[in-house]
Structures
1.
Amino acid sequence: MRGAPSADAAVGMEVYVTDGAPCTGRAKALDSDFRVQEYLSLEGLQSERGEGYVPLYRVEKRGIDTMHLAKELAAVLKSRVSYGGLKDKRAHAVQYITPTSSRALSPARASSEGWEATLEGFLPRPLSRGQVVANSFELILRDCCSEVGERANDALETSAGHRLPNFYGHQRFGLRGVGTHRVGREIVKGRFEEAVRLLLCEPRERDSSEAGEARQAFREGRYEEGVGLLPRGQEEEASVARALARRPGDWIGALRSVPVKLRRLYVQAYQSYLFNRTLSRALRSGLDISSYESGDNWSRLGEDGLTLSRVGGVRDPPEQGAVPMVQIPGFAIRDYGSRFDACLKEVLEEEGVTGGEFYVKEMLEASAEGGFRVPHLLVAGTSAESGPGTATLKFTLAKGQYATVFIREVLKPADPANAGLA
C-alpha cells in the first residue's frame, strides 16, 4: 500500500491499494477523452403526456457543468428541473433531466452553447437520484508511460476483487483549490463568517490577477468593487459579495444568496471528506473492504454487480451476496459497533465534530442526515487497450462512483490537477 500525494490527502484520499509505481499520463487532455453515459430505471415512461406527467430529456453536454446546464434548461422549460447526478464539466456526457412542474413546456428539442436536449417521453413524476442505476465510461489517457497497460490491468484485476476503494473524487470538492468541504466544515460548526471568508477571500491556485485583486477587495470589505473585478463564471462569489454589500455582517444571509443545492453541496462535500478519511483509516488499519464480515452493516449486491439493496443492520442475518457498508456521517449516525464505525469515531474525534452538528439549526436546509456507502468500487464491463503513449479504458460504475478514482490507481500522479483528475 502506497501513501498518496498531499493533494489527494487534502480531500481524505490518503492511500493507493495497487502496488505499481506511478505512471505518467493525462486524462481529459481533450473533453472528448472523457465520455460518460448515464443509465436510468425509467418505469412509467410513455410517449404521450398524461395528466400530471413531466417531459424527460436526454441531454448531451460538453464544456458545461450540470448545475449551469440545469439553470439554462430550466429557463427554456419555464420550470425548475431535476436530475439524477452531477456530471463533470470537462467531459462529453449524456444525462437525463426533467422539469419539476407538470405545467412545464415540452419542446421536442432545445439547445445552447455546450448542450443539446432531446425529448424522450414523459414520466409520472420528476427524475430523482434513486432512478440512476449506473454510469458507463470510455476514457482515453494520453502522454502515458510505457507501463500504462500493465498498470491499467492491475487496477482492473483489483477492482474485480472488490478491493479498489470507493473514494469520493476531486470533482466532489471543487472550488478551484479551496475545497467545498472546507466551507462545509465551517457551516456545520456554525462559523458562518469563516465560511464566507473561504468563499470570497481565500486565494485559489489558478486565480487570475483580476481574481486576486477581487479577493483583496473582499478582504478589505470593498464588496461592490470586488464584484466588478471578478472574472466571468464566478457567480457564487459574486452573489455572496453583493449580499454583503447590501447587508454587511449578515453572513448567513450572504451564504443564502447561493442556490440551495450548492449550499447543501458544501455540507455534503464535508461528509464526503470524512468518509474518505474513514476509508483511508480502515485501509491503513488492514481492514478487508472487499467482503462482509460479522458485525458489519451490509447490503445485497445485485446480479448485475452494480445495484445494492437496502442496508441491513449489524444484527440482521446477511443475505447471499452481502457486501459491507460504511456510514456517511450526519445527524442520524449511530455507533453500531462495526469495524468501520471504530474508524469513523476516530476521524470525527480528530476533526472535533459530532454527528449532531450536521443538524444546522441556523441553516436547516443545509442539514445532512447521513447514510451508507459501499467501501469498494463496483465495476462491470471492463476493458483496457494500450498503444504508444496512450491507453483506452472502458468500464461501468455504480451510481455515485467516480471514474477518476479508478484512474488515480492507474497513474498515481503527484499532481492530480495536471493529470486531469481534479
2.
Amino acid sequence: EEEEEPDQSTIAADLQLQKKRNELLECHFM
C-alpha cells in the first residue's frame, strides 16, 4: 500500500482554516 503524502493545497487549506478559527476565537473572547 502506498502512503499518501499530504497535498500542498490540502496543507494550505488546513492552515487557512486554522487561521480563520483563531481569528474567530480572538474576536469572540475580546
3.
Amino acid sequence: DDVSRAEVRSALIDYAGNCVDVNMNNNAVQIYTCHGDPNQSFTYEVDGEIRGWNNLCLEANGSEINTWPNLSAGQVRRATVRMAACNGSTFQKWTATPAG
C-alpha cells in the first residue's frame, strides 16, 4: 500500500502566546511575537524531528547542557536550543505532549 502523506506546518507557541522564531540571518532560535512568516513555521516529523522553514532541525545542543539549581525542585537541566543540520541524533528528537 502506497500511502500519501501531507506536510503540515504549524507554529510552536509558548504559554504567553509568543512563537518560536528562527532568525533568518543566523538561524538562532528565539521567542518572538507571532507574525506568521515562514521562519515561525515548523513540521513535526514521524521520527520526532522538528524541521524549520530552512529544512534544518531543532536541536538541544547536548555539549552545552548544564545543570542549574532550582530552589523548588532541586536541579534543572537546561540547554541551548538551535537549528542545525538534521543528523538523526537524540538531541534532535522531540515529543509532543498536551499543554497543561
4.
Amino acid sequence: MVYGFKVVFVRLEKSMQLLMSCKCMQRDLVKLLPICHSELDKVVPEKASVRLVAFNLGFLPGGDKAIITKPETTLLALEAAKETVMPGGLISLVVYVGHPGGCALVLHAMKTVEAV
C-alpha cells in the first residue's frame, strides 16, 4: 500500500487525476489523503510492514512558494516515520531550498534526522 499526503487540495486533485489516468491494477494500492504528513501515524495501520517513508519537503516547484513545509510538522512526521518503518526500512528526505526559509528547513531537517 502507498499513502500520499498533501495539504494543498489542488495538488491532491492533480495527483488523483494522474493516478486515475493510469491503466494499471496497482492504482488501487494507492491512497491519497488531504492531510498533513504529521498525521502519518493516525492513517497507516499499526501492524503495516512499512519499508519506506519518503518525504518531499519544501515547496512545489513551479507552485506558490508561500506554501511550504513547516519544520514543526516535519519533526512530528519524522517521529511518526521512525515508529512506523520496519527494522531495516528506509526514511528518505528530498528538500527543495529555492524559497524563503528553504536553507533553514534543510538545517532543521538535518538536526531532526540526527535526533530521530
